[in-house]
């Protein structure tokens, strides 16, 4: 075992890898990066302090330059590139080395890789990282999963690199095997939901209430000073101020309304269905991106079904106040869906996630950081068995206070032909969840009618079947 060499190695020197490596180097660790791209290698070598930051295109040099046991992270695109890096490095790795995947890998892939490498005596971790380029450089939220022993081995480096809230690092051991990638996937599902909710608020304010770009900027800036304080509201206010090179047109108004995605939102929705945990706001956020992609079809349909002219029967100030409360309500429901998924997944997949810790490390560094995460942390801290944050006393008071405004916003959207799909889904989720009685007795009767699927009766033991005709 050698004590000389670099403390930490990064494979993939793109947006995330390069910045996280420099962040780790800032804390005094010696680091080495590996990338196939000679330009990326040259640019890192140029920028960094040569004494303790190095980059190479040679896997052999990379491996032999690291202190043993080695600590390596991959930040390459999810999917085949991760398997390819693992295949390339594994022959050179020794028992006790740690290999981490910091990308947005699909959690079943992480389980497969974890099992294969654990069998070889190599520690493997799926480490969710959020914060984008700036977060990676200055302090992201980090969600490591794998084994507690592996985490202890890398903890000082991850704690040094992570964002800090009240002096506490936004990193914790999330849970076993693929727990880190799972929680990051749900983080992204919530990210999709919040972004879609904000976009719908923008649509209602712009097309319904007629707010100018300047007014939109001011509204979002004000919102960010209150309960909605969050990274996504903050960047939205900045987007409403960013002019193109001509100094006149907002860049936003030049961007095509066709949203792309890399898959984490879809995986969240798919897994929610698998676990039978309702996540309709996330589902509708995915649906909205998918529908946005078929722009030509939308334009053709718009000719057949033109939106009717409609003037909202409320002042701008009134609409702004209602939309703000609708967003607060819908944000809570979006996080509620994500947390409910993590709780169920933790049981189902034996992750042993400490849910209050997840809320805690999402308070800083990540894309979904928001002031209200402290409320969620407190709710789970007070009661780790809490099934849904919506029924926590303090959050229930807020939902009760805002529910008439979200209903009004949905009505305004319906009247003005403005699609408020994720907002509606949030309200429906709430209404379904708070309904002690739902009309699904009728579905049971129909199932039994056409398929003899049987049904249960109120206050009676057993299952029943009726000859309906
Ligand atoms: N960008 C973001 O905001 C965030 C991204 N992520 C996740 O982090 C991961 C990395 O993303 P990001 O940094 O944006 O991606 P980039 O495409 O910017 O960087 C990936 C880098 O990996 C390199 N690479 C690919 N295959 C190999 C290989 N076999 N060996 C060595 N290097 C390789 C690429 O080189 P080359 O270009 O030459 O192929 C590139 O430099 C992804 O899983 C992403 O989803 C997570 C959080 C935020
Ligand atoms: O992980 C992230 C932030 O936390 C990425 O920015 C995310 O990959 C963006 O996803 P998509 O491209 O699907 O919108």
Automatic annotation (TrEMBL):
Q: Where is the 6-phosphogluconate dehydrogenase C-terminal domain?
A: 180-469
Q: Where is the active site?
A: 184, 191
SUPFAM superfamilies in the cross-refs: 6-phosphogluconate dehydrogenase C-terminal domain-like, NAD(P)-binding Rossmann-fold domains
What does the record give as the reaction this protein catalyses?
Answer: 6-phospho-D-gluconate + NADP(+) = D-ribulose 5-phosphate + CO2 + NADPH
Task: Keywords in alphabetical order, please.
Answer: Gluconate utilization, NADP, Oxidoreductase, Pentose shunt
List, in alphabetical order, the GO biological process terms annotated in this UniProt record. D-gluconate metabolic process; pentose-phosphate shunt
Molecular function GO terms recorded: NADP binding; phosphogluconate dehydrogenase (decarboxylating) activity
Provide the family line.
Belongs to the 6-phosphogluconate dehydrogenase family.
Q: Which PANTHER family match?
A: 6-PHOSPHOGLUCONATE DEHYDROGENASE
Q: What name is this protein filed under?
A: 6-phosphogluconate dehydrogenase, decarboxylating
Write the lineage as a comma-separated list.
Answer: Bacteria, Pseudomonadati, Bacteroidota, Cytophagia, Cytophagales
Gene that produces this protein: gndA
